[in-house]
Design brief:
Elements (H helix, E strand, L loop, with lengths): L2 H4 L9 H25 L4 H15 L2 H27 L6 H30 L7 H5 L6 H30 L3 H27 L9 H10 L9
Bound molecules: protoporphyrin IX containing FE (HEM).
Length: about 230
């Protein structure tokens, strides 16, 4: 009896890779709405917060929020396991392997920091993580030296990683040309969305008056800090 005959749905082995793929499909929906929320900020702070309130009806419903935070945490763990295994097999070969490994590594770092910062803002400082949360760390130097590349690369990395996954899916379906188009398409979309979010959060598009509670939050990390962006 060969492996192929054993490969029926009921006997298919659950692997880190299959769990990573399954979680990715679930998270794709959240990423789509989350990035849409950030782009809605191009129309102003009130629009950003109104769109966030609408989407929160779903992802802030406690059972869903717990599931979301669990899946995204597991996704980072699975991703790091796959990354270590892949690097143990040797240097990535070719553009798409490098794109997969680099985007995976950058996104894992982005997400660990994003979840830690979410905990600090929401739990430790009991702040409302609306528009002013990301805008606070984009309000001036030295925070911007770190958070402009952080947010840009975070969005570029997640979209590139999704694009590489879509490419493998299209290649498996016998559509290599479509695969390359999807891969490059997601990468370019990631760069465009990342680039659009930066002027929005730094106050280059409209003035942002930082509320005192967010100045207090920033001064926890940098005593005496005064916003100077925009
Ligand atoms: C420029 C990029 C990003 C910005 C400015 C940003 C900003 C935010 C904000 C403001 C919140 C709080 C939401 C709320 O309180 O309702 C949040 C939560 C969150 N973000 Fe992001 N985010 C970014 C990218 C991402 C990406 C790429 C992911 C990947 C999946 C992600 C995953 C999450 C998760 C899981 C939460 C927690 C949701 C919750 O439980 O309330 N973020 N982010």
């Amino acid at each position: 009896m060969t492996d192929a005959t054993l490969d029926t749905p009921s006997t298919r082995r659950i692997t880190v890779r299959s769990l990573h793929k399954a979680s990715a499909i679930v998270l794709l929906t959240f990423v789509f709405f989350h990035l849409t929320n950030h782009l809605s900020g191009l129309f102003g702070i009130l629009v950003y917060n109104a769109v966030q309130d609408t989407f929160r009806v779903v992802y802030r419903f406690l059972p869903i929020e717990i599931l979301l935070l669990l899946i995204i945490s597991m996704q980072v763990v699975f991703g790091v396991v796959l990354l270590v295994r892949s690097l143990r097999r040797g240097r990535p070969k070719g553009f798409w392997s490098w794109a997969q490994v680099l985007s995976g590594g950058i996104f894992a770092f982005f997400m660990v920091e994003h979840l830690y910062a979410l905990y600090m803002a929401r739990i430790k400082f009991a702040l409302e993580t609306d528009f002013y949360w990301p805008a606070s760390v984009m309000s001036g130097a030295p925070f911007t030296y770190y958070f402009i590349p952080y947010y840009f690369l975070g969005v570029l990395a997640i979209m590139t990683h999704i694009g590489v996954g879509m490419r493998y899916w299209a290649i498996d379906a016998g559509r290599p040309a479509l695969g390359d188009r999807l891969g490059f398409g997601f990468m370019i979309a990631g760069a465009a969305i990342g680039a659009a979010i930066i002027p929005m959060l730094t106050g280059a598009l409209f003035p942002i008056e930082m509320p005192p509670e967010w100045l207090n939050y920033l001064r926890y990390f940098l005593p005496g800090y005064t916003p100077n962006a925009g």
